[in-house]
Amino acid sequence: MRRLLLVPAFLAALAWCAPAYAQARNQLGPLCTTETTPADKMVDACSKIIALKVFKGEQLATVYFWRAVGWNKKGDYAKVIADATEAIRLQPSQAVYNLRGSAYYDKGDYDIAIADFDDALKLGPPSGTIFHNRGNAWRGKRDYAKAIADYDMAIKSDPRSAFSFQNRGISKEALGDLDGALADINQAIRLDPTLPQPLINRTAIWRARGDFDRAIADGSEAIRLAKEKPPVNIMTPPNSVLISGYTHRALAYEAKGDYAHAREDYQATLAIVASDAGSKANQATAKVRLSLVTDATAPVPRDAPSPATQAAASPAPQQTGTAPSPSPAPAIRGTRMALIIGNGAYAHVKALPNPANDARAVAKSLRDIGFTVSEGIDLDRAAMQKMTRDFLRAAARAQVAMVYYAGHGVQVDGRNYLIPVDVELKPGTGMTEAMIDMDTIMAGLDDQVRTNILIFDACRNNPMAQQVASTGTNRAIEGASGLAAPTSLGAGATLGAGTLIAFATAPGQVALDGEGANSPFSAALSRHIGTPGLEVQQMLTRVRAEVVSSTKNKQVPWSNSSLLGEVYLAEK
What we know:
Layout: H1 22-33, H2 39-52, H3 57-74, H4 77-90, H5 94-107, H6 110-123, H7 128-140, H8 144-157, H9 162-174, H10 178-191, H11 197-208, H12 212-228, H13 240-256, H14 259-270, H15 277-297, H16 307-313, E1 336-342, H17 355-368, E2 372-377, H18 381-394, E3 400-406, E4 409-412, E5 415-418, E6 436-437, H19 438-445, E7 451-457, H20 465-469, E8 479-480, E9 499-503, H21 520-528, H22 536-550, E10 558-561
Helix pairs in contact: 1-2, 2-3, 3-4, 4-5, 5-6, 5-7, 6-7, 7-8, 7-9, 8-9, 9-10, 9-11, 10-11, 11-12, 11-13, 12-13, 13-14, 13-15, 14-15, 15-18, 15-19, 17-21, 21-22
C-alpha cells in the first residue's frame, strides 16, 4: 500500500567540497541525488561516489540515503535497510528513519517499522508523512484503531492527503464500517481523480456489496490511469498498482460469471513483473484462479464420457455417496460454503481410523447451522483435486468459505501438502506431485471481501519420512514432523486479509488420531462449531482448551487470524 517519502533534508544537492571532484559534481552527483533517475543509474552513480572515499559525515550520509532510494526503486529492501542504517550511523534524520521504516514495512517487520517511525517523529517536527506511514504499519499489525488515529493526524497535517483518506478508509472497512470506508475513499478520489489506488479500493467495496458492474467500472478506470501515468513516487513498488488493478477487476468479472474477461485479466496480472510481497501474492491468486476459470470455459469434447460414465468405467472413491459432479456455477452472494474432506483409508501408507468419522461429524455440525457443504471421504488424488477446484471456483461469490481436512499431511521444504488415499511415493519420482499443495488452496481463496476459514487436522504423523530419506542426496528436500506455519499469512499489506487458518496442533508438532471414534481436535471442533452467538476465534479458544485438557497437554491447537472483524458461524 502506498507509503510516502520524506526528503526535505536531502533535496538540496550535495555540498561538493572541492573542484578536484569535478566528475562527481558534474556527472555522478545529479544522477545519484535526483528522484527521477532510473534505479540502476542511481545506484551506480551513488556507488561510484562512495568508492571515491572523499566524503564524510553528513555528505556521505546523503549519498547512502540516495543509494537506499535506488535500492527501494528496485524492491531490494535488504539493501535499503543496510544503506539507510549506514546513513543513520553517519547522520540520523527523519528522512532516513522514514525510508528504513518503510523498507521494514515492506518486509512485513511491522514492529521494527513502527520503532523507526517513532524515532523519526522524535527527531523533528510532527510530520503527516510519518504519521501516515506509521498508520500503515499499525494496519499491517491489524491494529486498525491505532492506524485510524495516525491517519487522523496525517489528515490534520495535510487535509488534501488523498492517500491518508484512502488508507483510513481501508482501515474502516477492516472494522466493518463500509459506509465510513466508502466516504473516505470517495474523498480520496475527489482530492485526486488521477490516482488509481483509491479506485482499486472502491472496487473491493463494490464487490463486497455485490455490485459487480460498479466494481468492474472502477477497476477499468484504475487500470487506465495506471497505464497512462505510472506512479513515479519512489516509495511505490514498481508495477504494484497495475497488478492490483488487474487482479481486483478479474475477481469482479469472475464473481459476475464473466469468465472470459476474468481469464484475460488474470493473464495480464501474470505477465507483469512483481517485486513486492503484495504483488506476488496477487499473482499467486491469479495463477490459481486462472486455471479455475479456464476449466470453467473449456469446451467438452463430443466424445468425452460423462462423469457418471467415467465413474462406472473406473472405481472412484466415495464423494458424499455419489460420483464426482460437474463444476457448479458460482454461488449466490451471501452463501456460506464448506469443503469437508476426510482421508483415512490409505493404500500405501499407514491407514487412519478416524478421519472419515471426523469429516462427517464436522460436516453435520456445519449443515445444522446453514452451511452448504461439499463432503468427500477417502478421496484419491484425481477426486480430491477435482473436488477442491470445484469448491474454489464456486466460492468466488460466497460470503464465507470454510475448508476442513482430516487425514495425513506433510511438510516438504517448508510447504504443506495434504495426502490423498492413493499416494504411493517411489524413489526417483516427484514427491509432491502426488499430493495436494495447501498453498494452492490458500492462494485460490485469498480475497479480502470474503471470510476464509481453513482448518486442518492433518498432522497426525509424517508418513513420508522413509520416502523422504530415500529420495537421494538432494539436501534441498526435507520432510519434517507436523505441518509448517504458513508463510502466506506473513508479509504483505493485504495478503491473507480476511483469513483464519487453524491446525490441530502447533506447527512442527504431531497431533493425535484419538482412541475413540474421533480425534481429540475434531471431537472438540464438532461440539463447539455450532454454538450460537460464539465468535469464531472464541470458539477455537474453547476447542484449544478442551484438546489440551483431554490430551493432558500433549497437543495444543494453533491458529493465525487476519479476519477483518468478528465472525459468527452460528447466530444467536
